[in-house]
């Protein structure tokens, strides 16, 4: 009995190494794709948190006394700033601005609104009056123009911009979220 030994050739070491290198490159490309997707998702999550904090601050400002708030922004020309209103020190200074904070807002709750902490990250919030908004509005036409004019609307609305940024880092402008809105008078709420 004779066995025929056929010459079978297997993969050489170089072919095996080449296959491993190709698979490694493909897996690294796929891994980088998932890492980029995760960082993009995390960035969107942070922006969503900051937008919700801005909406919360705008909602807080809407609940304040409109006439006092209007006096604070329009007449006195101040902005609600997290740098001025620190926790445990909001409106404690003896300046006119500190007195305006104490007269207009409940400074303890305002400090908490301007310095929220979410998931271990502290944010700062500034509320800025937008005086230039009214000049850019088109005049209403038709039947609406007799009912509604800009001067009457101005007496009931305060256009503001809420800016949110991380407190512990010097964040570039890309990491700042801005939400624009109006503080409305209690008479039309």
From TrEMBL:
Transmembrane segments: 12-35
Organism superkingdom: Bacteria
GO biological process: establishment of competence for transformation
Subcellular location: Cell surface
Pfam families (alphabetical): N_methyl
Keywords tagged on the record: Competence, Membrane, Transmembrane, Transmembrane helix
Predominant location category: other
GO cellular component, one term: cell surface
Protein name: Prepilin-type N-terminal cleavage/methylation domain-containing protein
Organism: Paenibacillus rhizophilus
């Amino acid at each position: 009995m004779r066995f025929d030994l056929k010459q079978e050739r297997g993969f050489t070491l170089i072919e095996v190494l080449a296959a491993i290198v190709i698979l490694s490159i493909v897996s690294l490309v796929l891994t980088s794709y998932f890492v980029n997707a995760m960082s993009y998702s995390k960035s969107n999550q942070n922006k969503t948190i900051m937008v919700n904090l801005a909406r919360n601050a705008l909602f807080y400002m809407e609940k304040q006394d409109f006439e006092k708030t209007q006096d604070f922004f329009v007449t006195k020309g101040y902005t609600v700033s997290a740098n001025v209103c620190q926790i445990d020190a909001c409106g404690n200074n003896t300046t006119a601005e500190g007195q305006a904070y104490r007269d207009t807002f409940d400074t303890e709750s305002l400090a908490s609104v301007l310095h929220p902490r979410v998931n271990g990250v502290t944010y700062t919030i500034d509320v800025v009056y937008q005086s230039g908004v009214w000049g850019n509005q088109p005049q209403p036409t038709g039947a609406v123009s007799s009912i509604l004019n800009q001067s009457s609307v101005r007496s009931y609305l305060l256009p503001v911009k809420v800016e949110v940024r991380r407190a512990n880092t010097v964040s570039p402008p890309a990491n700042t979220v801005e939400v624009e809105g109006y503080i409305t008078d209690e008479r039309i709420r």
